[in-house]
């Protein structure tokens, strides 16, 4: 395998001052009195990325993700350590980064292309493809200072992924922009990955990391907490966020939850005014509200498709406890079910022949996705719920088939 990025013992230290005047005092006063505290945003980071890898970078805000990407791209210099990069790099770090607000979109395409090492003649060849991909109409010849955040994202993505990079770096950029553009970007990124482009992908959407990336690294307080196969690292990270993060310690309004899980959404086949709504869940029914362990549970999902066709459309149904503990969540893509994806109203039934759950209350989420679950088209959280009531025969969350054998 060709080594594309080598990060070795990287430390990035910032000086933190309590007051702005302290920075001046430290620089001009004699005796070199220290007015700052050192903060290590990254503290001894080492890893390697090979050609064709898609590496997801996970971590809470402040864990060092963006600092790491800025070091790799050369926007920042490390305090100590070494970074080696092989190949042409294209990056989307912050909205509008690398754009001159006074230049037009077309002029900024030339500017960004020259910055990553393309010749003007090469940019001329790629210009029409970039403009078509961005799809911002006549705004391409307007100063980018008048652009909306979505237009910024479109142009930044269009430039970054249409210049044949060896390495593509994306920092939360998919959070901006409409669903149609997200789908187009994911398709292009998948094409680049298939052709051997190395991708670094930062996203708070862990399912995107799990489904798009083959490897992942979890940063915690400036160090690598775990690195390896993406599904494994995402599971470790989600467990940590669920059980160890104060961000998740939020109380629930029990009465509100009770009313929400019994809500049923139903609409007629009316095309929405919003062109970014491509598909919508219109009705969810369950065959009861009270069950016993081993009863059959049936969930009927009705949904509308407003496009002529949506490639890669999938449906997921997930079981949760009222505390949002994830129990089980299959989807039609993983189980190779061809979901109807043409314009019109469709209905699917999801059946659990023998529900193994023990006594308690449970909620069901239903979601429509595209691109193997990376792009969410519609999601209904806790759309229906049910309770399991048994005469006492076992304890725990699920019933597991088992045997007893008396040995003496």
From TrEMBL:
Keyword ATP-binding: yes
Statement: the UniProt record of this protein carries the keyword Ribosomal protein: no
Keywords of this entry: ATP-binding, Nucleotide-binding, Translocase, Transport
Domain of life: Bacteria
Ranges annotated as spanning the membrane: none
Record domain ABC transporter: where: 5-246
SUPFAM superfamilies noted in UniProt: P-loop containing nucleoside triphosphate hydrolases (SSF52540)
InterPro entries given in the database record: AAA+_ATPase, ABC_transporter-like_ATP-bd, ABC_transporter-like_CS, ABC_transpr_TagH-like, Bact_Polysacc_Export_ATP-bd, P-loop_NTPase, Wzt_C
GO molecular function annotations of the record: ATP binding
Family: Belongs to the ABC transporter superfamily.
Protein name: Teichoic acid ABC transporter ATP-binding protein
